[in-house]
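S.,

Sequence below, as promised.
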Amino acid sequence: MAVLVDLTKCIGCESCVVACKLWNKLPYHPRRTVKRQEDDLDDTRWTVVQKKRVQGDNGREYTRFVKKQCMHCLEPACASACFSKALRVDENHAVVYYPDLCVGCRYCMLACPYDVPRYQWEEALPLITKCQLCSDRLKEGELPACVGACPTGTLTYGNREELLRKAHDIIDRNPRYVNYIYGEKELGGASWLYISDQPFEKLGFKMDLEQTPPSDYTRSYLTKVPFLAAAWGLFLVGLTAYHHHKENKENKEKQGGGKDA
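The prediction came back faster than expected:
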């Protein structure tokens, strides 16, 4: 399953942002205290709508709105980097976070090419936060909250292959669209697909991503993590035993020397 985003239809109403907050019971912070040029994801904002000003080839300036959230990659780098299995792909291909399994290493934040997972820096017991693609709603046959709240038809949820065919058909029939579907092949593909009438690089999308999934590189290394952790633990146990033995020997020598005196 996937979501197709037609950026030509987005009016920046942020209905998707509100719906996401309401369904996931996320707290509301009025723009927080740090001023930023554009809204970005944080631990309480799992999706945002960013306003972009783009100058076309004809010299005219256009305003476009770009919805940002987890891309839910088909081969997610965050999940491949998580040795505790706190991030997993479910049957609807939502990349879901299981906080009870998280050890707080934040490898997922380093691994994600889209800079999506965020950390609850202000919490006493912090967790990783990100869009879950409303996996609980999908299991009940409902739409993701953001898709259901969109009033302009910008977001379409459905089978990924069918959405790709629909996107290609839209591009073929309307020459104003850029002949590219963002998310179709990036890093092995994603469950969020974008079409646009403006070049994606002008809208802030990362265009230097490989088509090879990052998991192809990380999987072989991460299989060694449990063994390395166990080996490190044994090393520390042995080091502690050695120091205890050394201290006991020195104490005995001191006690023996005191008796001779």
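The two ends are 84 Å apart (CA to CA).

Coffee later?
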